[in-house]
Amino acid sequence: MTTTPAGPAVEGIARAAAAVLRRNDAGTMTRAAPGLYPHMWSWDSAFIAIGLARFDVPRAIRELQTLLDAQWSTGMIPHIVFNPDEPGYFPDFARWGTERAAARPAGVQTSGICQPPVHSIAVRHILDRGRERGGADEAAAEEFARGSLDAWTAWHHWLASVRDPDRSGLVEIHHSWESGFDNSPRWDAAYARIHPGEVPPFQRRDTLHVADASERPTNEEYTRYLWLVEQLKSVDYDDAAALDVVDFRVKDVFFSAVLAVASDVLADLADEFCRTDLVPGLRDIADRFRLGVRSTIDPATQLARDFDVRAGEWIGAETIAGFAPLFAGTSAGIASGQTALLRGERWMGDPRLRFPLPPSTSPASPAFRPSTYWRGPTWPFLTLLLGWAVDRHGDPELAADLRTASLAQLADLAFGEYYQPFTGEPLGSHDQSWTAAAALEWAGQLGVAAG
Fold it and tell me: How far apart, in whole angstroms, are the C-alpha atoms of residue 451 and residue 448?
């Protein structure tokens, strides 16, 4: 049984985590990690803002405002905002080719795809921390939350319309990078059907920042990733044209779950600030996508599934995305069954685990690889999101268990990008900003400040 680290240990975790965020601070954005990820990633920044709010509310606001400044005229929030002062990352702004995209804001360098819409959850955290601190922090948090409602709402409506044209209640993605689960087994079959055309030569940099290249996606996988970029570039990232040219079209159940719960959070914020004009549309989005998530549950495995639009097939990979109903909110019966499965031996209850935390892929799955990115390792930021969601939906016991195990995992102070589930070894980039942010939020829930 894992026990919460003693008070002084948690204080040490919080201080070290705050130091990581300060070191990774690039002024108006936070580097996702030193070296490997020198720019701003969309959903990273939302979690980073949650961590920053524990000790610097104005800086947390600045983080999300920088992201909003990069919002496209369509409402899309791009998955990368490039820092022009940080050259050398691949694929860079030039490779994305978004200089030709009509919707991209002038003077801002971005990618041309998106990531899960966790941002309103971060706004809620910023507002709560500002009110706890009072004074100027409270005033700034309320001004930002109120003033950004229309922008976040436009983002949600873009996803609910452009990425769900048939109103299935499931968000369609056009690249596995949009899911955030880049090389997950969820996408194996869809990628296997892709035969890349001509991809300009490239030199990866991610493999230079890890001790073992097997922790990262393969070169074959990366070629397919870049081919999809070439396809989207060919239509200048036009939403309608992309449907005809892109080889990867998958309804993403986890992305859909995030949109459902985040839309409810955003509706709550709109209601709180008397923006009743926004509330019905956001509630409709939340309800539609929650039902969409529920509709994907496999009766045999009780896991939610993605759907490959090109192949017309369900994707039944045994990954953490299968617990999308726990993220979105669901009926008591479904939640009970999924929680029992999550706590069982195929997941958190596997006796080989160093810490009882859900791996990204079930250790019982033939696709499980314990050290490879989204094919097995545990991801602390995702543990935090799951803990927040189940607590919101009425399971504080599971949330507390996840917090206890996660703090024990992060007591090594490496703040790894992801962790080997059996050994507890930190993998990928160290001093990862959203991992540090998760530590700060867990510590803050125990009343431990960053100092």
Answer: 9
Q: What is the pLDDT along the chain (451 residues), one digit of tens a residue?
A: 677 676 669 999 999 999 999 999 999 999 999 988 999 999 999 999 999 999 999 999 999 999 999 999 999 999 999 999 888 788 999 999 999 999 999 999 999 999 999 999 999 999 999 999 999 999 999 999 999 999 999 999 999 999 999 999 999 999 999 999 999 999 999 999 999 998 887 765 554 545 555 555 677 888 999 999 999 999 999 999 999 999 999 999 999 999 999 999 999 999 999 999 999 999 999 999 999 999 999 999 999 999 999 999 999 999 999 999 999 999 999 999 999 999 999 999 999 999 999 999 999 999 999 999 999 999 999 999 999 999 999 999 999 999 999 999 999 999 999 999 999 999 999 999 999 999 999 999 999 998 6
How would you classify the pairing of strands 418-419 and 426-427?
antiparallel
Instruction: Determine the residue type at 442.
Output: W
Nearest to 226 by CA among 192, 201, 255, 189: 201
For residue 260, what are its two tokens? 């459902």
pTM (two decimals): 0.95
Quickly tell me which residue has 């759907």 as its tokens.
307
Cα dist from 135 to 56, 130, 236, whole Å:
13, 8, 46
Catalytic residues: 182, 417
CA–CA separation, 363 vs 377, rounded Å? 10
